[in-house]
Amino acid sequence: LFCPMASSFPNVSELVARARRLYRQVFGEEAPQVAVCAPGRVNLIGEHTDYNQGFVLPMALPLVTVVVGSQTSGQDVSVVTAAEDAGGPLRADFSLPSDGSPLSPGLPSWANYVKGVIQHYRAPPVPGFRAAIASSVPLGGGLSSSASLEVAFYTFLQQLKPDDGDKVSKALACQQAEHTHAGVPCGIMDQFVSVLGREGHALLIDCRSLEATFVPLADPGLVILITNSNVKHSLTGSEYPTRRRQCEEAASILGKASLRDTTMKDLEEARDRLDAVTYQRARHVIEEIERTVQAVETLKRGAYAEFGKLMVESHNSLRDLYEVSCKELDELVSAAMEVEGVFGSRMTGGGFGGCTVTLMQAHAVDRTILHIKERYSGTPTFYVTTPSEGARALSLP
Ligand code: ADP
Ligand code: MG
């Protein structure tokens, strides 16, 4: 889709070319043998439900992380990342323990995502390798550059030394990598959709059974616009574990394993046993799980206006009940909703900054971007996106 107002991003082959240039520049003349990519994601609805065993509805993005590289004969790993945001290439060198002892996290911290994937790779031991990374996923913008990096490296290792190819186990191994080596107790959504994503489809994930259902979403009359607020409030780190704890506490007071197993009726009956804040958190989760199920029904019927209404309800609930929005995200959503042809808009991802996702009629996209630019107090970045393919090996020229 041609959209002059949105920022253009490099496609996969451009990223491969960049990664190859970087590889040659850093490691010498030799060309890499393997190339892979894995996408970032945007969550359409179902926020803060994954760690409550609920439903989420993300889609894989055309924004991807590319890894090119080659196996080496020794036990050494060298990885270089283009990292334009950090002002130039960054390099990490480490050795794989030969005695089977764990590969500990350390510095530089970005390399911990790579180390974690090596540690949790399902066909150990991993051989030594050299690799170069190039990515179009904004780092720390809530579009899951971290999962795309993990899944890209896992896919890279599969090319060097195949595992059994089970995609769910692959996603779980990458989630483990983020838990143990990056110290982020994330849910399963990001890695799952980065592995399993399919062009023209959103992915409904049941985070309790890990069952995934593809939901067609390929209407040429529709645009999914991502707006990066370009702010990240430092609250994220401390607030996320707090929310998780509050949800666990609510579930335990209700006598259930998780909030997925509860209803609003259960919650109302137990209201006097919960403090006001815990009640609010639980209410968001229970209603958001239900909204996500409803949203899939509306999509199947092509009822985009109804889907959009649920997106706005989701946003308001995240703002008022779960309290993970911020002034910038609220501004972006309000501005988008003022434009004719916009069906719905909401914050997406953990919150306290990052991105919003907006569903609209295709003809409204330039008008919406202009209006948001005018109304937003910060400097936004826009991506016009379509549901894209999950992680894959690429052929090298
Ligand atoms: P998000 O996943 O929303 O983008 P995170 O904070 O979870 O934000 O992950 C961002 C971190 O992931 C970065 O700070 C960096 O450590 C790592 N990372 C992601 N992509 C790359 C990349 N292309 N090169 C180096 N590090 C990366
Ligand atoms: Mg992340």
Description:
The chain is an alpha+beta fold and 397 residues long. Helix content is 39%, strand content 24%. It has helices spanning 12-27, 111-120, 145-160, 167-181, 189-196, 236-253, 264-269, 276-300, 304-320, 327-337, 365-375, and strands at 34-45, 55-71, 76-81, 90-95, 129-135, 201-206, 211-216, 222-232, 342-348, 353-361, 381-385, 392-394. A hairpin with an 8-residue loop joins strand 3 and strand 4. Helix 2 packs across helix 4 (167-181). The two termini are 26 Å apart. Magnesium ion (MG) binds next to helix 3. Adenosine-5'-diphosphate is lined by residues 65, 81, 83, 109-110, 113, 133, 135, 139-146, 149.
**Helix and strand string, N-terminal first?**
HEEEEHEHHHEEEHHHHHEEHEE
What is the general shape? globular
SS summary, helix count: 11
User: Which stretches are low in confidence, meaning pLDDT under 50 for 5 or more residues running?
Assistant: none
In angstroms, what separates the terminal alpha carbons?
26 Å
Overall pLDDT confidence: 95
How much strand content do the residues show? 15-25%
Please state the oligomeric state of the protein chains shown. Answer: single chain
Bound ligands, each once: adenosine-5'-diphosphate, magnesium ion
The rounded Rg comes to 21 Å
Question: Given the helix and strand composition, which structural class is it?
Answer: alpha+beta
The main pleated sheet reads as: 8 strands, mixed
Helix content: 25-40%
Number of strands: 12
